[in-house]
């Protein structure tokens, strides 16, 4: 049941410290600076030259997160919408690893793309929540995110666990490919281990409910970010539109001036996600919206320069650069939840949507 919570979505947001701890259990060893994914012995990915991630919806945003992190680790990779794969897949060969990211393991679009990749001779892995799912059976190997059942149609805890597992997988691929662990692994592991506590603290102190109340009657909601923060901006907007039924869009912060800025008014709050990737530029982009009257909400640590510039602030704990976006995402999950609740939407079952989309 929902226990003390009004909705499964809120319960699942609050389960993230536990679900992440479960995902990480036995898989990271900060003391010895190692990652151990039991089904993937060191060397498994030695021949991988490039990686394609395929997924839909929220899982696509996690895939984008994993793909950007992998590029930053020096491995050629790309995230592709599974429903576009049949018409736009880049060539695969036997050095290509294709990673299907799917919470349910039953999404028709993702299964089709996975089957195509299998038929073309790629090595395939699925990152999924469901043991025994079709994706787990049909991919060469499966990596389970161990998030526990997710009842709310809006994916929350599974996004966080997917992104974290993709970061771990990416570190293993990069280590095998380069013959040594990535330089930032040593700094990343203790911060990964600290994630459950960091999210706990964030959930306890979040002011997302008050913020949602302040802006619940706006015209449109924009989310901007750069790099890993861009995938979080896309995810923030998807969650917001899915459960509030209000118009929301995510943009790469640098894209704002290439068109979307025409939509910006005092009625369009802009959530700016800061992940330490050229934050100065993102701040400048946010200020361009602010100049047009839009309220800017900075999602960043307390001592960040953006706090002084922005109209409002949602706080995230200090962490490793690869993880800041995931903490920001939890604040955005809460904003969406509280905005939808104020608007009296059926949060766990939004109209027209299904938890598992088994048609093309
Ligand atoms: O089960 P999957 O991860 O393959 O599902 C993919 C999407 O349908 C899913 O993430 C959808 O976008 C979420 N309901 C969004 O919250």
Automatic annotation (TrEMBL):
Instruction: Tell me the ranges covered by the SIS domain, including all copies.
Output: 36-179, 211-350
Active site residues of this protein:
355 (for fru-6p isomerization activity)
Its keywords, alphabetically, are: Aminotransferase, Cytoplasm, Glutamine amidotransferase, Plasmid, Repeat, Transferase
Which reaction(s) are listed as its catalytic activity?
Answer: D-fructose 6-phosphate + L-glutamine = D-glucosamine 6-phosphate + L-glutamate
Top EC category: transferase
EC number in record = 2.6.1.16
Q: Name one GO molecular function term.
A: glutamine-fructose-6-phosphate transaminase (isomerizing) activity
**Principal cellular location given in the protein's record:** cytoplasm
Domain of life, per lineage: Archaea
GO BP annotations, alphabetical order = carbohydrate metabolic process; fructose 6-phosphate metabolic process; protein N-linked glycosylation; UDP-N-acetylglucosamine metabolic process
Location of this chain's protein in the cell: Cytoplasm
Cellular component terms, GO, for this chain's entry?
cytoplasm
What exactly does this protein do?
Catalyzes the first step in hexosamine metabolism, converting fructose-6P into glucosamine-6P using glutamine as a nitrogen source.
Provide the assembly information.
Homodimer.
Identification of the protein by name: Glutamine--fructose-6-phosphate aminotransferase [isomerizing]
Q: Which organism is it from?
A: Natronorubrum aibiense
Task: Identify the gene encoding this protein.
Answer: glmS
Q: Which portion of the entire protein is included?
A: 245 to 604 of 604
């Amino acid at each position: 049941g929902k226990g003390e919570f009004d909705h499964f979505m809120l319960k699942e947001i609050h389960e993230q410290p536990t679900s992440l701890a479960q995902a990480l259990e036995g898989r990271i060893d900060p003391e010895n600076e190692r990652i151990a994914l039991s089904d993937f012995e060191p060397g498994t990915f030695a021949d991988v030259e490039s990686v394609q991630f395929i997924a839909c919806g929220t899982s696509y945003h996690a895939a984008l997160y994993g793909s950007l992190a992998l590029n930053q680790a020096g491995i050629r990779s790309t995230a592709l919408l599974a429903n576009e794969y049949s018409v736009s897949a880049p060539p695969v060969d036997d050095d290509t690893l294709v990673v299907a990211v799917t919470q349910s393991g039953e999404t028709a679009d993702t299964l089709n793309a996975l089957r195509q990749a299998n038929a073309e001779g790629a090595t395939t892995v699925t990152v999924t929540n469901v043991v025994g799912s079709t994706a787990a059976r049909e991919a060469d190997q499966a990596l389970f995110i161990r998030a526990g059942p997710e009842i709310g149609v809006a994916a929350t805890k599974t996004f966080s666990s997917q992104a974290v597992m993709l970061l771990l997988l990416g570190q293993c691929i990069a280590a095998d490919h380069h013959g040594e662990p990535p330089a930032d692994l040593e700094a990343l592991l203790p911060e990964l281990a600290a994630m459950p506590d960091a999210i706990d603290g964030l959930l306890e102190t979040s002011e997302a409910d008050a913020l949602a109340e302040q802006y619940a009657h706006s015209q449109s909601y924009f989310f901007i970010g750069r790099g890993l923060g861009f995938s979080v901006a896309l995810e923030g907007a998807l969650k917001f539109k899915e459960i509030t039924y209000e118009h929301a869009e995510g943009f790469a912060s640098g894209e704002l001036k290439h068109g979307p800025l025409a939509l910006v008014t005092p009625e369009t709050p802009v959530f700016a996600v800061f992940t330490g990737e050229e934050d100065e530029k993102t701040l400048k982009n946010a200020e361009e919206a602010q100049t047009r009257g839009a309220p800017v909400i900075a999602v960043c640590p307390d001592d960040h320069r953006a706090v002084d510039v922005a109209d409002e602030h949602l706080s995230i704990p200090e962490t490793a650069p690869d993880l800041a976006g995931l903490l920001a995402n939890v604040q955005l999950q809460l904003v969406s939840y509280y905005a939808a609740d104020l608007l009296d939407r059926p949060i766990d079952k939004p109209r027209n949507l299904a938890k598992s989309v088994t048609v093309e």
